[in-house]
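Second opinion, please. Pick holes in both lines of this record:
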Amino acid sequence: MLPARTNEELDADLGAGPLSQTESPLQLSVALITRLNLWWSEATRAVLAEEASRLKISAATLDESCEMVVKSCHSSLVRMAKQFDAEFKALYERLSNLALHDSLTGLVNRATLIEWLDRIIARLARQPGGIVVAFMDLDNFKEVNDVYGHACGDDVLVELASRLLAQMRPSDMVARIGGDEFVAVFADLSDPLDAAQKLAERLHSIVTEPVRVNGIDLHMTISIGIAVVLGPECHSDEVLAQADSAMYSVKKTGLNKIITVEGGSPNRPV
């Protein structure tokens, strides 16, 4: 057998210089596997040549054997490349999903919501109608974590997120923006002022239905602030701030209620 060679010798044979310290571990792994595979091809062909000479095997037979080794090497590299591409794509999709969604509930996160909401608001310049933005905060949710534990609290959030998502049309969106706070956006409404209260009451109703966790029925209440957007003049941050402010007005006046304001106006009640 041929003696093992150093990494520098392998690089020289393949026409490559020393590995750069700036290359990522992923690049280093792929490069190393490729070099090892090519080295295996070269070493195997060298062994075949030695054995062919010793056994007096014809040059034609040796060439055929070496060709099979080269084809096997290339086939292996193709399989590795396909597997690498598939795994890299899966990893990229997973990381992209984590960047855009809440890891607990699977709902979109605040950054995704804001980007989408800005596009929906801008669209109001080209079509009539409006948007309803509902800012929701569970009342006294800390007590669930304190009494039953954070795992139970997480189960409650997951269940309520599922209920809220089930209420959304393809044109709508619901997000978890932190802790026990959710935002639902209803777009493409022909009469948002009329729809706002009905939508808020529907959300309120599905959240206040008992949540069963570990055999225990938990009865939650929720405070909701509604901002109705009638035109493209406002920004998503402004609308969310107004809906948030309306929700905190509920918190200050007794919890478990709904307050609606017109987005773009200084928290003017509808």
In short: The radius of gyration is 31 Å.
